[in-house]
Structures are given as structure tokens and as C-alpha cells.
Amino acid sequence: MRILHTADWHLGRILHGVHLTDDQAHVLEQLVALAREFRPDLVVIAGDVYDRAVPPQEAVALLDEVLTRLCGELRLPVVLTAGNHDSPERLAFGARLLAGQRLHVVGGIGPEPRPLRFEDRHGAVEVWALPFLDPLRVRHALDDEAVRDQPQALAAVLARVRAARDPARRSVLVAHAAVLGCETSESERPLAIGGAETVPASLLAGFDYVALGHLHRPQGVDGAAIRYAGSLLKYSFSEIGHEKSVTLVEMDGAGACRMEAVALAPRRDLRRIEGTLAELERGAAGDPRRDDYVVARLLDPGPVLDAMGRLRRVYPNVLHIERPILDAPAGEGLAASAPAGRLGDEALFAAFFEQVTGAPLDEAGRRLLAEVLEALERRRRGEEDAA
């Protein structure tokens, strides 16, 4: 069986004020092209289809377009599960009707889990598709008061899955969870507050392939056929070093799996540039990727006027500016001549003056500045005494 595994689309995502719907449509067009090329027996979308429980209209329209092309145009079966960002009820609306059109949507769980069954030339494959398992929902669905956290919720559901599965058939598990020891990203919403959220990989043993969602870096788990497909795009600065992809799985008649990460090319990449403001302005003309989403790390030793405005004239999609000198420990950077723990007003003004005029503040200017600062300090103290 050939499986195309993807997850964490987060349709409707906004990154530093930028709506990413067009960027998501760009990579989803590639996903549809891959499905057309490889003709998988099954497409798996392992949760976090939307970025929030009530998605914007354009996100719903994009999902409708992609699923119509996969299930209607290409006539491929799709299994789609709810993640922790999704509303299970909204996502699963019409699920029984959609199943007749090859779209299998799983929003919640019942007391007795049931598999989806698909066929290839080697026979039947059971797909056990689980949504994000909120412990409270699982406790009520299974009537099991012992379920209090993520590991207990997954263990309780999988115990019933294992009791119901057919050991003679190959099996695929779809889950949305954080596996212990895997690499996380800043853009992932925590699965629990004040309790355990990571689950041991040992809970997932016994399936021929485990298609995971939630963690945004594409990665395998413990060298087994357990894999995170990762997110469609880079959704935080911590993901700048990621290469986003979907996973193509080839399962043979015995259940052995070969997995391949197939890269996705973003419309605009998310990357970091570094240098002084003047260096970045000069270098932009020769940068073929000026339209990327950019985090600029400015190395100027002093204040910089209108850094964002100037950068956006040459890098139109700058999202954020980092100033490492402002984060330097006391005794370094601009704070070198200041009392420990704060930036000195005189040092800041002197650097500002030089930035504006192109010349250092002379001795007469420093004396005048000192008099002004002293007068301001006396006024401040007088106001405090009067209060």
C-alpha cells in the first residue's frame, strides 16, 4: 500500500500579522500534484487542519478546494483527523455522508473504536484513525475515571484498539500527540496545562506504520515506522532550519515500510539575515530571495533610526528585527558605561547623536547633556517628594 502522509496544515495561520493562506495554497498545490504523480492508495492528514477552532472563511474555502481535488478529481481515499487546534464537531460535520465520497473525517472517539478498511493488491489494511485525545473527552467516552493525562488517554484508547484489531491484517495508526524525546517547535500549542503531555514511543508499538501529527519538524521516532510528517510551512522562527515535506510510505505485503520525505517548496521561505543595517541595505540588490519572509538580526553598535522602514524598502517582507546588543549582559554593548542592569542615558544619547549627525558627541555637547540629565533628575526627585 502506498500512503501519502501529511499533517499540521494550520489553515488560517497568521505569522507576525501576515495571513499565510496564499502561501498555504501554494504548497497544497504541490501536494495535489504529488498525489496525481504517485497515485497513493490512501492520503492521511493527521490533525491540525485548521489553526483555530473557528477558522476564517478563506481557510474553509481552501480546504474545500484541496479535498475536492483529492477525493473528487483524483478519486483518492482521504483520512482526515482532528488535532488540538481543530474543533472536532465542526470538522466532522457531515462525516457519514462524506465517507461515501472517499473522505473519512474523524473528529471524536466512541467507547468501541472501529477501523477503516482499505484494500491493495496484497489484501486488507486496517487504519485506526484517532483524533487528538483530550483526557476529559476520553474519560467521558470510555467511562474511565482513571484517565487524567495524555499518556493515560492514549493508553486507554489503544488498549481497546488492540483488543479489537485483526492481527492477521496489516495496520496503520493515525494519532495526534507529542512523543517523548522528539524535537518541538515554538509554534506548537501545548497539549496540556499543568500535567503530562508527552507520551512514550512504546505506547505506539505493534502497528505497521504510525502516522503522527502535532510536532512541526519532520522526524522519525526511535528508528521505527513511526513518523511525524511535519507542518506544511515554517510557522515560527524556531523552524527556520527545517525543511518542510510530506512523507511517502510504501508498505509491502508483510507490512514492512519504506518512508521517503518529499520536500515542499514554499512561495516565500522564512529565513534570518544578519549584519549592520547599512550592510543589509547594500547587499539586498544582489539577493535573489528578497521577497522571503525575513528576520533581520542587526549588528549595529548603537541606536538605528527607522530600521524597519528602511529594511522594508529593500526586503518588503521583513517580519521582525532582532537587536542582540540590547540583550547583552550588563557591562557589554550599549550598557558598557552604564550602571549594572540598565542602559545609560548618556551612552544612548551619544550613540543616537552620532547615528543622526555622522559625528561623535564632542566634550561641550557631553557637558550640556549632563546638565540636562541632572536637571531632569532633580525635577523627578522633586515630583516624588511632593507626592
What sequence of helices (H) and strands (E) makes up the elements? EEEHEHEHHEEEHHEEEEEEEEEHEHEHH
Number of strands: 19
How can the largest sheet be summarized?
A: 6 strands, mixed
Question: What's the name of the CATH homologous superfamily of the largest domain?
Answer: Metallo-dependent phosphatases
What is the fold-level CATH name, i.e. the topology of the largest domain?
Purple Acid Phosphatase, chain A, domain 2
Oligomer: single chain
- The helix-and-strand class reads alpha/beta
Overall CATH architecture of the largest domain: 4-Layer Sandwich
Radius of gyration: 27 Å
pLDDT < 50 runs, ≥5 residues: 334-343
- The side-by-side strand order for the widest beta sheet comes to 6-5-4-1-15-16
- By CATH reckoning, the class of the largest domain would read Alpha Beta
Helix content: 25-40%
Number of helices: 10
Give average pLDDT, whole number. 90
Q: How large a portion of the residues is in β-strands, by DSSP E?
A: 15-25%
User: How far apart are the first and last residues' alpha carbons, in Å?
Assistant: 78 Å
Overall shape: elongated
How many domains comprise the coordinates?
3
